[in-house]
Amino acid sequence: MIQQKTLDRLVLQNLINTYAFETQQGRVIDIEQQDAQQKQLSQGKPILEFTLEPLNVTMAVTLDKVSKLGQHRLADTPFILQEESWKKLTPVSVAALIIEDLACRQNNDAVQNGIILDSNGVMKRWIESYEGLKTILEHRNDEMDDIIKEDLNFIETEQNLIYGHAMHPTPKGRAGFYDKQWAQYSPETKSQTQLHYWLVDPKYIAEDYVDGDSISTTLKEKLIENSGDTNISNYQNALLKQYPNYKLLPLHPWQAKFLQQQDWYQRLLEHGELFDIGEMGWYLHPTTSVRTLASFKAPWMFKVSLSVAITNSVRINSSKECYRGMYACRIWRSDYGKQLKTQYPTVEVLNDPAWIALTIDGSIVDETICILRDNPFDAKSSITNLASLSQDHPMRLTNRFATLFEAIHKRTNEPLPQIARQWFDTYLTVAFVPLIQMYYQHGFGFEVHQQNSLIELKDGYPTKFWARDNQGFGYIAEYAAALIDANPQLINEAECVIPEDFADSRVTYYLVGNSIFGLITAIARTGLVSEELLLEQFKQCLQTLEQQFPHRSLFDLLLRSPTLPFKGNLLTRLYALDELTAPVETQSVYVEIPNPLVAG
């Protein structure tokens, strides 16, 4: 039985934090600063209070944890001040007031630019996310403490991102899944599924494979070789033997059903050019992205197109992502890549060495693209994405960092505050510093937000960092000239060469604002060290890097600018932008936030 209060608090926490951060509206009022009316509400806790337009409504919510970096932990759901007393509203009413306020504040700019704001769409996605989180809590309520265990493997941590991106208003929005499908295909419900396969005449298939001639042929061989794990029926096996030259195309089972509506599907089926042979193969677990599936038994992970709107975007692979993954893989597996691994031994990339898709009239059907990803992890390795590691326990004032630090303390007898600071310093050494060095020494830019940042833990500390998802890999024109000259396809086909000023803003948000600041908040949540102390520790790291790379605009931005660019996920949703299809310069709304590294 889920606790309704927990559900309501969590869904409003994301919305309120994103609203307050992106608009810089509202103020945190400590108990010492509260008047009698505010103390009546707060019961000895800080409150976050703001005035909402256009109704001029005062809304306030009590806080269990205050974050200088915007990720407050709510103690309750909000109240509004009405006739000199505090009234509690339903979550839907609170959401409606906040979204209406945001639309009101943005309306003039939108009208001037001929933009129609999508308030209804934001509300719809928020309700969908609410229902999604409800489904998660129903499935995981009795085992929630599992998410903060010391020893967790890759698949377990991929399934443990309970309430999602901390600064996203609708982190569990998956428009397109019905109730049963939501539970059937989501990582947080610990689901697993097989891929759905089509057997297709080769003239309708496009593919590429770094390690061989045909990924379809290799995939077929792997499925047959591992028949004990791949569950191929007699019917499926007979078709594979009857049509040895036909290509296997893997699809997400939801996507396979969705694509049956297409005219070309019926045409190919009727002409015997496509056989819909159904689900088979390894049982795969959806990872945090929902549409990438993994198993410790499978030779690859599978990143499949999924025509479902997950957070801000419909998650359909594109041909440029295929090319981007192939060229990145070739670079990392070349002699140049081997030198990179020697130079930066703690950093790895999860490469995408192959892809396969259907073509109709000579054009790739993006909705059918399957990208195959390296699968280096096993069940014994302690691998975690930063997002799962950094989240609060939904019901208790703790997180996995508290568990890890206590375990380290028991092994070493070192003071807990020292362990917390050392953990952060180790992460900076293992991940952040080499990523910045690669940025300037080789022109590699990674949009590694917390969900795409993987770390291996040994004795509780990070020892290796993996960047995943080539969608966020870029090459900085000013620093990667030789590499770009040798691989001109990075410009035209992969479309991943970017100028330094653009790269600076993206690194500032993804690597610093999302990953590092989120990590700082999570470590500070243990109560062992403050956000301020960790920010100072990070600032010293940046100053050391600036000595190595002087006169670089990124350090001017991070160390001296009064504000920093930050992606506004709530505003991006209000402006109805799709981050996968819009031009890269306008695919998201960015706002300026006070720079916590220079603020007093």
From TrEMBL:
Highest taxon in the source lineage: Bacteria
EC number: 6.3.2.-
This protein's encoding gene: iucA
Residue span(s) of domain Aerobactin siderophore biosynthesis IucA/IucC-like C-terminal: 422-581
Aminoacyl-tRNA synthetase as UniProt keyword: no
Keywords: Ligase
Organism: Psychrobacter phenylpyruvicus
Residue span(s) of domain Aerobactin siderophore biosynthesis IucA/IucC N-terminal: 154-389
One GO BP: siderophore biosynthetic process
Family membership noted in the UniProt record: Belongs to the IucA/IucC family.
Any Pfam family the entry gives: IucA_IucC
Name of this protein: Aerobactin synthase IucA
GO terms assigned for molecular function: acid-amino acid ligase activity
